[in-house]
């Protein structure tokens, strides 16, 4: 029997070869004769998407499709330079620098269903530019238009500039507010986290901690990109409004403005996904589509 999982694994009569970033993470389960289940360990953000497995047995062949979804959170992002400053490639890089990837339309749509409302258009991974509106208003495409995800269509990736919608998933570590007796500037914040055995947290890491670790702190702090933010799970007076979310206070002067700091400490001996495993039926390969949602760093069987 010959099984090839596109872009990752090739198997022929007991011999296997794994390619690229999948080396050491992808292999056949081989639970019994004819079992073509493929296991992906330590799932990363880059593994999100559609997988195709072609199974060939003598003169017969079949193909199966699996959409690998990730549990995660979508967040809008723009750099210190301001809004509408990123072309597609810069938006892609900006998300990666914040421990995230460009979000897909389905991820943005799900975030909108969960209440995301943002009045600035941003790049998605397919090259389209969209933005989610839960509360229509005149400043965001007219008040009399229905709520939904507004779509500018596919834009020129080099010349046109927008914000970005990023997607991140569970952390392989912990974000925490570093308790100090005094507030610090950015350079001092970096040193403080290092002395504590950590690094200044990235924006995607803070969003993941807010979403999955329920981090709730009504104190503004430095992040790695030089922005000031704080996560609120339980809204209350004097903590930035009536809705949960990650509050953003902008990009202040790194040298003269003083705040707290959010640090990130990576797990050394365990993964954020723990032992959680997602498995889709593979007793017989048929032409089908299925979708699974799992945390980053878990194992998936497809």
UniProtKB/TrEMBL annotation:
A GO term for molecular function: hyaluronic acid binding
Keyword flag Repeat: yes
PANTHER family documented for this protein: AGGRECAN/VERSICAN PROTEOGLYCAN, HYALURONAN AND PROTEOGLYCAN LINK PROTEIN 4
CDD domains: Link_domain_HAPLN_module_2 (cd03519)
Organism annotation: Perca flavescens
Subcellular location: Secreted, Extracellular space, Extracellular matrix
Keyword vocabulary terms for this entry: Disulfide bond, Extracellular matrix, Hyaluronic acid, Immunoglobulin domain, Repeat, Secreted
Superkingdom of source: Eukaryota
Family, similarity comment: Belongs to the HAPLN family.
Protein name per the record: Link domain-containing protein
């Amino acid at each position: 029997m010959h099984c090839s999982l596109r872009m990752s694994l090739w198997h022929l009569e007991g011999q296997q070869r794994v390619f690229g970033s999948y080396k050491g993470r992808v292999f056949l389960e081989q639970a019994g004769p004819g079992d073509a289940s493929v296991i992906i360990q330590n799932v990363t953000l880059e593994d999100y998407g559609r997988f195709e497995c072609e199974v060939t047995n003598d003169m017969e062949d079949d193909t199966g499709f699996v959409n690998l979804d990730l549990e995660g959170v979508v967040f809008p992002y723009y750099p210190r330079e301001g809004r509408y400053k990123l072309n597609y490639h810069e938006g892609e890089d900006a998300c990666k620098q914040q421990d995230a990837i460009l979000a897909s339309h389905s991820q943005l749509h799900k975030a909108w269903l969960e209440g995301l409302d943002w009045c600035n258009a941003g790049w998605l991974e397919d090259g389209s530019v969209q933005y989610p509106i839960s509360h229509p208003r005149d400043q965001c495409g007219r008040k009399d238009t229905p709520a939904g995800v507004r779509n500018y269509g596919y834009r020129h990736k080099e010349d046109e500039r927008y914000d970005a919608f990023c997607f991140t998933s569970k952390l392989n570590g912990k974000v925490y507010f570093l308790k100090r007796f005094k507030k610090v500037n950015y350079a001092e914040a970096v040193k403080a986290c290092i002395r504590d055995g950590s690094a200044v947290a990235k924006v995607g890491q803070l969003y993941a901690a807010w979403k999955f670790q329920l981090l709730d702190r009504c104190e503004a702090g430095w992040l790695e990109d030089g922005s000031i933010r704080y996560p609120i799970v339980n809204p209350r007076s004097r903590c930035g409004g009536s809705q949960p979310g990650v509050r953003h206070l902008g990009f202040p002067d790194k040298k003269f403005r003083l705040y707290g700091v959010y640090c990130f400490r990576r797990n050394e001996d365990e993964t954020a996904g723990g032992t959680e495993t997602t498995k889709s039926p593979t007793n017989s390969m048929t032409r089908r589509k299925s979708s699974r949602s799992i945390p980053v760093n878990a194992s998936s069987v497809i």
